[in-house]
Amino acid sequence: MIIVVLPAFNEALNLTELIPDIDRALKSEYRILLVDDGSSDQTLEVVAEFASKYPVKLLRHASNRGLGVAIRTGITYALALYKPSDILITMDADNSHPPSQIPQMIKELERSDIVIASRYVADSSVSGLSRFRHLISKLGGGALGTFFPAKEVRDYTSGYRAIKLSVIKDYYDKWGVLPISSKGFPALGELLIRLLAEGNIVREIPLNLRYDKKKGPSKLRLIPALVAYFILIIKLLSERSIRLNLKKNLGKS
Questions:
Q1: pLDDT per residue over 208-247, tens digit each?
Q2: Cβ distance 36 to 61 under 8 Å?
Q3: In the CATH scheme, what is the homologous superfamily, with its name and number, of domain 2-249?
Q4: How far is 133 from 222, CA to CA, in rounded Å?
Q5: Distance between terminal CA atoms of the chain?
Q6: Which residues pair with 246 in a beta bridge?
Q7: Alpha-carbon gap, residue 198 to 95, rounded angstroms
Q8: Which of 103, 116, 158, 227 sits between 20 and 30 A of 124, alpha carbons compared?
């Protein structure tokens, strides 16, 4: 089973294209867990319409709680209902991540635990990304890579990933919590670093980022995002288990 976690906040215009594209890309059994993070547009109506045509499960937040909380909601549901042998896909709901890349990501999981669709490897491409958003990604991801370096990882903040559900279950069974606690955008980096610290093997494939297909304004804000990255780095550096495990497992990727 392929479980696609889609955190969505006011993405009605993008979901009308994205959900059918996911269906076309996936030939095996799949389920979309769409986490509505307090949308005020027509997201709920769009999801209700598509749920009658596609395997879509709506998970709702009454208010906007942040990207990290939305992803955590989806992961919690997946762990409760699906098998460790299943595959978890996280991707943006703004139609910038081509679903056509999912089969390649799943294929790469045959020799890894986590696959990242990366903006910073050969043959990747980026269309329509603003300098502002590029700056935040480079600064946030660069800081995470400096403090928590891992072989073969270039893109710490890409939200487009394939993860063996067993990897997250193993983390939960060991620590009693999910590997994600941040509320905002830095949660993507936190999830990756915590799983890296457990010695999981990570591979990257080129991402064809299509930000030009996104409809609607960006939800990312410069100062709050950078402050949140700073807080995350301090938090992770303060955790002895993260420091020791990363040092022990460095180079396993």
A1: 999 888 887 666 676 787 888 899 999 999 998 887 777 7
A2: yes
A3: Spore Coat Polysaccharide Biosynthesis Protein SpsA; Chain A (3.90.550.10)
A4: 8
A5: 25
A6: none
A7: 31
A8: 227
The pLDDT > 90 percentage for the chain reads 76
Pair of tokens at residue 241: 């288990």
Residue in this structure with the two tokens 């329509």, named with its chain if needed? 128
Q: What's the CA gap between 57 and 122, in Å, rounded?
A: 36
Q: What is the distance between the alpha carbons of residues 115 and 100, in angstroms, rounded to a whole number?
A: 15
The encoded tokens of residue 214 equal: 């996104």
Q: Which pLDDT score is estimated for 132?
A: 61
Burial 27-41 (b: 16+ CB within 10 A, else e): eeebbbbbbbbbbee
Q: Which amino acid is residue 241, in one-letter code?
A: S
For residue range 88-114, what is the model confidence (pLDDT) as tens digits?
Answer: 999 999 999 999 999 999 999 999 999
pLDDT at 39: 97
Per-residue pLDDT at 253: 46
CA separation for the pair 153, 151 (Å, rounded): 6
Question: Phi-psi bin for 123: left (phi > 0), alpha (psi -120 to 50), beta?
Answer: left
